[in-house]
Specification:
Layout lengths: L9 E5 L4 H12 L3 E6 L2 H13 L3 E6 L5 H11 L4 E6 L14 H24 L3 E10 L12 H21 L5 E7 L5 H4 L5 H10 L10 H10 L10 E4 L7
Parallel strand pairs: 1-2, 1-4, 2-3, 4-5, 5-6, 6-7
């Protein structure tokens, strides 16, 4: 028995059009899951779907604006028809600005996509019974789930808040045999970090801070996602798994 196999499992992955969401989708599909790719931009999803199918994987796409909570609720209802064995909430944004200058609209926008939307989607899946017994809900945190990050107050609020959501849902949904965990990446090579680490000097300084001596590669987060979605983690719930190359330990 392969405890890490995702054969015959249906997994929804939001933010699957690019970055860490795409990388997780490709790794999860390679483990045998049928993946439902969710994002706002159809062209990105079509590209990911083709990449997965080209290597023998199984995927479908659903376009949705996860910044619209009414649309997120409708997405949960749409997914209810097929049943869901796992969900990875990889969609997310950030906004960098001094806290004193943060606008109400930017604060609301970041909290809505990073914190409210994943909760609403998981809630709808459980309400509709689309989330099957032994289902696994994987929320995405960050280093901001554990520490403060200057000029990122809304992002840190959302990522530390989602840890509280995960712990609470893990307790409430345990009787339903639904597990809920947080997967927190450190610094990875993505468009999001490229905007911050935009010079070789900045990258070098960051790599000196990481015990493993380099930024993460997006597919390296996929293995931890497979673990949380698979039978290898059936006694793991309410936990935060940090994949950061040792950054927080140093």
């Amino acid at each position: 028995m392969n405890l890490f196999s995702l054969d015959d499992r249906r997994v929804v992955i939001t933010g699957a059009g690019r970055g860490l969401g795409r990388a997780i989708a490709e790794v999860v599909a390679s483990a045998g899951a049928h993946v439902t790719l969710v994002a706002r931009t159809r062209s990105q999803l079509v590209e990911v779907e083709s990449a997965i199918k080209d290597v023998g994987g199984s995927a479908e796409i659903v376009c949705a604006d996860l910044g619209d909570l009414a649309e997120v609720a409708r997405l949960g209802q749409v997914l209810a028809g097929s049943g869901v064995d796992g969900v990875v909430h990889a969609a997310g944004i950030t906004h960098r600005e001094d806290a004193a200058d943060f606008s109400d609209s930017d604060l609301a926008r970041v909290l809505r996509l990073n914190l409210e939307a994943p909760f609403v989607l998981s809630r709808e899946l459980v309400r509709s019974r689309a989330s099957r017994a032994k289902a696994s809900h994987v929320f995405i945190g960050s280093l901001g789930s554990s520490i403060g990050i200057p000029r990122a107050v809304a992002y840190v609020a959302s990522k530390s808040g989602v840890l509280g959501v995960v712990r609470t849902l893990a307790i409430e949904w345990a009787p339903l045999d639904v597990r809920v965990n947080l997967l927190s990446p450190g610094y990875f090579h993505t468009a999001l970090t490229d905007a911050v680490l935009d010079t070789p000097e900045k990258v070098a300084r960051m790599e000196m801070r990481i015990p493993l001596g380099r930024l993460g590669r997006p597919n390296e987060l996929g293995g931890a996602a497979v673990f949380l979605l698979s039978s290898a983690s059936t006694y793991v719930t309410g936990q935060q798994i940090i994949v950061d190359g040792g950054w927080l330990a140093s």
